[in-house]
Amino acid sequence: MKILIVGSGGRLGAALVREYQGKFDVTSFNHEQLDLANQNQTRDNLSPLEFDVLVNCAAMTNVDLCEQEIEQAFAINAEGPQLLARICRDKHAKMIHFSTDYVFDGEKREPYVETDAAKPISVYGESKRTGEKLVLQTQDRHLVLRVSWVFGPDRPSFIDAMIKRACEEEHIDAVADKFSTPTYTHDIAEMVSRFFDVDLPGGILHFANNGECSWQEYAQHALDCCHRLNIPLKAKIVGALKLADMKNWVARRPVYSVLSIANYAELTGVTPRSWRDAVSDYIERSYSKK
After folding, report:
1. Which residues carry out catalysis?
2. Terminus of the chain with fewer CB atoms < 10 Å: N or C?
3. Does the pLDDT of residue 288 top 90, yes or no?
């Protein structure tokens, strides 16, 4: 099976390339090779290729920068995916497009299901929601996968920043009143390959590791894992911040954006492992040998 991965320079795209090489016939493009904001470049690069599935991991994910560069955010997160969807439709290929928990406003306070109304409260969320709609309008067999708080070894994320700070400082803190679910790129890669069969239906599907937490709980668990593995840290406890304390943030963030994985579990017969187990696995793989 021929798999095309767009956005291979990012945390998720790089993980997919690594996981799939040797298992599939993989072609990939990073941002320098293919800029979704440049539609002519995108057409020129992809039109000559043959592939069965295109996985789009490319996105403008800097939430605050999106507020300042609105046109660019929509070019990359909405218009670019629409073009990819059209190219896939014309080639009779399936598209798997990644989206985000930030399409929700965070007011629900229980896990969001796929049929819940998307109400973005930021330019980033709005651009990603528009991208979802444009992809599915182009071809209803395309698949939109919403994920949350993605972490992995290919590019530093929140968890890496907290471990780095804990190595350097005795007192660290994190937001304690914002909730979602950390999701490991290794687990995402395993999940996505289940949907490479182009006969499977499209639509929207949520995926995350199991459970939910605040950023403070997430960071505390990471530090606990490091201590258990005898990884030297200066900090042992993660203090609590409030979302309202984050005065330097430009964009609004949803307070609660946990994604329900019930549909995924029912569809595949597989329940993702807990976020705690996934984080422990990541830290053991990435930090215990350093």
Report:
1. 124
2. C
3. no
